[in-house]
């Protein structure tokens, strides 16, 4: 153990004592604020200075004040106490904690702002750390402990993660408006577009994962014209005639210049939901459910926000995604 570690070990249990003496400049008043007898505090002050070999306080008549060394140390003491308070609030306080949320780029335009706006109106003290990233990266962050919750799609099959479906979108074969399939009266198979060039999302995106699974099940190996970063870009490129695509149905109707066709394949859907680390055995919780596993800890603010999302999300997400 080096000298700095040794001094820190001496001082850490007495941080509040140093701060109280600095605040009151009076041993008796400091003892009262800490709820300890004045002789106990006086002995503790003498002991910590002896163990550190540094004078932190000095007497001034009836009171005390910090020495120059104590004054230089005080900002670090106060910062350490505040960091500790914030950490304890994060662990125990539903109204003061922090939620680390990761979410899909497409959900960042309207869905996440709407959820945060509504939740913060009810719980203004809860703070958020936000990360916007694709599906695969989002799940990796959640599994590694870098996030508390993920708003994503599709939902994972990882046994270490639980999830609740908030909304299910249908996947459509999106073609240019003058495409030969555009006039189809009923559902079409993915195989009917096997000869076409495809506009796909980049690997690691949730929609790309669903598209690959669907096309593979239909025996289609797509010829890729372009790999887009996001759904809106893919729609626009289909409208420009660059190719066809498999995308979620657009809530406000097809983008001008495109036609959306029902797919005949089973599993042509895209569940959107909230995912969190599983905190106990059993099946994933249904939306709006409660409970916490005995083998892991979940900050109260995280549970509070997740329950809000499960309650409110199914009402607002259908009109804001796509």
Automatic annotation (TrEMBL):
It comes from the Bacteria. This is DNA-binding transcriptional LysR family regulator. Residues 272-292 are annotated as: Disordered. Residues 15-67 form the HTH lysR-type domain. Belongs to the LysR transcriptional regulatory family. One of its GO terms (molecular function) is DNA binding. Keywords: DNA-binding, Transcription, Transcription regulation. Residues 279-292 have a biased composition (Gly residues). PROSITE patterns: HTH_LYSR (PS50931). The keyword Transcription applies. One of its GO terms (cellular component) is protein-DNA complex. Pfam families: HTH_1, LysR_substrate.
